[in-house]
Design goal:
about 35% helix; seven-stranded antiparallel β-sheet; four-stranded antiparallel β-sheet; alpha+beta
């Protein structure tokens, strides 16, 4: 038997750590939580200070026996679960199951799974942090009370299978409130006037600013036509030229929130997909020449802190890859926002010298893309500013003022490696020709155009995560599961990348706002998060928080039970007849989006996906090509005669035939819309990004 037993959460993490510790150590995985509140009952003793009633999770009994046996045989047990509240709670439950003394130094944590970090942690074990455990326990009890008290009410009054949750209800409300804003938005008309000019044969555009020094706003065609008429035959004279310099600093290293946002913008990843890939990178992969190693630091963090060694490694890489001029004289230090938990570093590569190109062939595409994003962001955060030469030109035409701004890159700085994505496109400044006061650029044409103000855009997963973080709702570990839950419950659907509330989501949100206003109140939820942080700090007792919440909540529950009547949810009827019973099928919302179902359930259980025809015949059998979705929600194309015909393609058939071999041409999926032949032109599937 091994002298020492180390218990982690996952098998892949166990494999990586075992290689570092070698002989004398046995490493086992708990497979996450071993005990939890029972699913069949509330599991919280309301009458006795809200004490939770834990049970061994079904199916984990044999694992518990095995862990007990190994712990009994070992001289020493180390609990090496994740370094956060959830991980601390798992270690606490393990200690109780394995009868480890509460005062024993059995807990080890590491921010990164590298040989140095793991061996250092083994040398400095500590006792289990009861404050961290209490914070997790408080959240679990609070969420259980909200979920198990309100959900049955929704089942009874609205529809079976519904649920309410402390953070998920607020997230759903944000999506519903945004949709209401969009629907209530009244567009306002405005007009722009642009003068197309040229100087020394170089063309540029100047935008109307106003009359003289006074800004002018045009809200209708008549006033716009009057200005256009007044500019007829005008001479455009440069009255002022201001030259300057602008610096742009790099974005800070990733936190959980910003990683999810950027992976959504740049890679098209959902929050769940991002966290899955990040977990795999953290737990360890095998890299030629370096063995099994964790490639990134712990991925649930809202800290911007970086270790001195990591920063030194980044600066060394910058000097090697880009040159000393790209490295600022001193290391950049980023300030973590107020209220953030600073227990861990920001998300960064564990080995700055491990370039993405070095692991491209050993990582799955998903992990590689995310590692590249994290590596580039981290290195860029320690690079020099980008510097731009700017010029602002003021032009007079018959008393009307036009302005033109331009910029040119003087020094690329960090943008040589990385630029942060944006939720909305920014207007790019073009370079201007050389202009001096008194110049009269050649007039080309005058353009006037009608516009309307636009409503706020719907949330994407990335922008919803950003909103939740800014409002203080949830914590790094909750963003992804919260969004996954509201989609799985059918409260919100994804329309391409946008989050749209369903009728069900709106009905439940309206009920919550009317009868449980505190639960869906953003400020109240944020204040609860702050109180949980205080429990973690040891300054507040968790029982008091739950007690203070439960009194008013139980009163709301009683009143809601009496006030809410039964609500009938009408399904949207399709024009598709059920082939089994003849009823007109209705649209339902499931885990993978909309589908068709027979309204005769349970007598008739017919259900099928919504068929979206591409309008192109199948190249194999002549049937129709339809759009389908994989289990992970990725779009692909197949024949409607499946399984008789097995034609499938990730790329969209175009209907055009290859001039060389006659095969059907395909259009590549993703950002590159390149058309290619899968038979004779397969090697040319790549192409320049557009």
């Amino acid at each position: 038997m091994a002298d020492k037993l180390v218990i982690v959460e996952s098998p892949s993490k166990a494999t990586t750590i075992k290689k570092y510790l070698g002989k004398g150590y046995k490493v086992m995985a708990s497979m996450g939580h071993l005990v939890d509140l029972p699913k069949s009952q509330l599991g919280v003793d309301i009458e006795h200070d809200f004490e939770p009633k834990y049970i061994t999770i079904r199916g984990k009994g044999d694992l518990v026996k095995s862990l007990k046996k190994e712990a009994k045989a070992a001289d020493r047990v180390f609990l090496a679960t994740d370094p956060d509240r959830e991980g601390e709670a798992i270690s606490w439950h393990l200690a109780n199951l394995l009868e480890i003394n509460a005062k024993e130094k059995c807990r080890i944590t590491f921010n990164e799974i590298t040989k140095t970090a793991v061996k250092a942690a083994i040398k400095e074990p500590r006792t289990i942090d009861e404050n961290l455990v209490d914070a997790q326990q408080a959240r679990r009890v609070l969420d259980r009370i909200v979920g198990y008290k309100i959900s049955p009410l929704l089942w009874k009054k609205v529809k079976k299978g519904l649920s309410a949750g402390r953070v998920q209800s607020v997230a759903t409300r944000l999506v519903c409130d945004r949709e209401a804003e969009i629907e209530q938005f009244i567009p306002e008309e405005y007009w722009t006037i642009d003068a197309h000019l040229s100087q020394n044969k170089k063309k540029f555009v100047a935008h109307l600013y106003g009359k003289g020094s006074k800004k002018l706003a045009l809200h209708d065609k008549a006033s716009t036509d009057a200005v256009v008429s007044a500019l007829d035959g005008a001479t455009y004279t440069v009255t002022d030229v201001k030259q300057g310099q602008r610096k742009k600093t790099p974005a800070p290293p990733f936190t959980t929130s910003t990683l999810q946002q950027e992976a959504g913008r740049k890679l098209g990843f959902t929050t769940m997909r991002t966290m899955r890939a990040a977990q795999q990178l953290y737990e360890g992969v095998t890299v030629p020449g370096r063995g099994s190693v964790g490639l990134i630091t712990y991925m649930r963090t809202d800290s911007l802190r970086l270790s001195a060694d990591a920063v030194a490694g980044a600066r060394e890489m910058i000097a090697q890859q880009f040159g000393a001029e790209y490295m600022p004289s001193s290391a950049r230090v980023y300030k973590t926002r107020k209220g953030a938990q600073d227990a861990h570093e920001a998300i960064r590569p564990t080995m700055p010298d491990l370039l993405p190109a070095m692991v491209k062939d050993v990582l799955p595409a998903e992990q590689y893309k995310l590692y590249k994003l994290i590596w580039e962001r981290f290195i860029a955060c320690q690079m020099g500013d980008a510097v731009y030469d700017t010029v602002g030109v003021t032009i007079d035409a018959n008393g009307y003022t036009f302005k033109a701004n331009g910029s040119t890159v003087k020094f690329r700085g960090f943008t040589a490696l990385y630029t942060e994505g944006k939720d909305e496109e920014e207007e790019k400044e073009a370079s201007l020709p050389r202009l001096e006061k008194g110049d009269t650029p050649v007039f080309q044409k005058l353009e006037h155009e009608q516009h309307f103000t636009q409503p706020p855009s719907r949330y994407t997963e990335a922008s919803l995560v950003k909103a939740l973080e800014e409002l203080g709702v949830g914590r790094p570990s909750t963003y992804s599961p919260t969004i996954t839950t509201i989609i799985n419950r059918g409260y919100v659907i994804r329309d391409k990348k946008l989050l749209v509330p369903t009728e069900l989501g709106r009905i439940v949100t309206d009920l919550m706002k009317e009868h449980f206003d505190r639960i869906v109140d953003v400020q109240f939820t944020a204040s609860m998060e702050e109180q949980l942080d205080q429990v973690e700090e040891g300054s507040t007792d968790w029982h008091g928080i739950i007690s203070g919440f439960y009194g008013p909540f139980s009163e709301d529950l009683k009143q809601a039970e009496e006030a809410i009547g039964n609500i009938e949810l009408a399904d949207e009827v399709s024009d598709v007849a059920c082939e089994k019973c003849g009823r007109m099928m209705v649209f339902k919302h499931g885990r993978f989006g909309k589908f068709l179902a027979c309204p005769g359930f349970p007598e008739c259980r017919n259900a099928k996906p919504i068929v979206k025809e591409v309008g192109i015949p199948c190249p194999k059998c002549g049937g129709m090509i339809i759009e389908k979705k994989s289990k992970r929600g990725k779009v692909f194309y197949g024949c409607n005669n499946y399984p008789a015909c097995d034609f499938t393609s990730w790329d969209k058939p175009t209907g055009e035939k290859c001039e060389t071999c006659g095969s059907m041409m395909l259009q590549r999926a993703g950002r590159i819309k390149k058309t290619y032949c899968p038979e004779c032109d397969a090697k040319q599937r790549g192409g320049e990004r557009k």
